[in-house]
Write a structure and sequence with these properties.
Structural class: mainly alpha
Order of helices and strands: HHHH
Strand content: under 5%
Number of domains: 2
Number of helices: 4
Oligomer: single chain
Shape: rod-shaped
Largest sheet: none
Number of strands: 0
């Protein structure tokens, strides 16, 4: 392999790496309102005490689902409730 070809490939790789790093930094700076809403809603839903019938959880889920739909969530209320109630697995 000629040295010039290798040098060009390394230069192109370096440029691509700089472009990828810039894109990653840009993504980190952007605020995703739906992701934030999911995080806050799950925390609130899981820490909420409820009555026997579960009405408080249902009302909270419905209100937060409507807000999530405004932010771009495309699932139905049942999917949203499953998302809110999903507990992380602990090892």
């Amino acid at each position: 392999m000629p040295a010039g070809r290798l040098q060009n490939a390394l230069s192109a790789l370096g440029d691509a790496m700089h472009e990828v790093n810039a894109a990653i930094e840009e993504m980190r700076k952007e605020h995703d309102p739906l992701a934030s809403h999911i995080f806050v809603s799950r925390r609130h839903y899981q820490n909420m005490s409820d009555s026997k019938g579960g009405k408080r959880h249902h009302v909270s889920a419905r209100v937060s689902w409507q807000k999530a739909c405004d932010l771009g969530f495309r699932g139905n209320l049942g999917e949203w409730e499953r998302l809110l109630a999903a507990a992380a697995r602990r090892a």
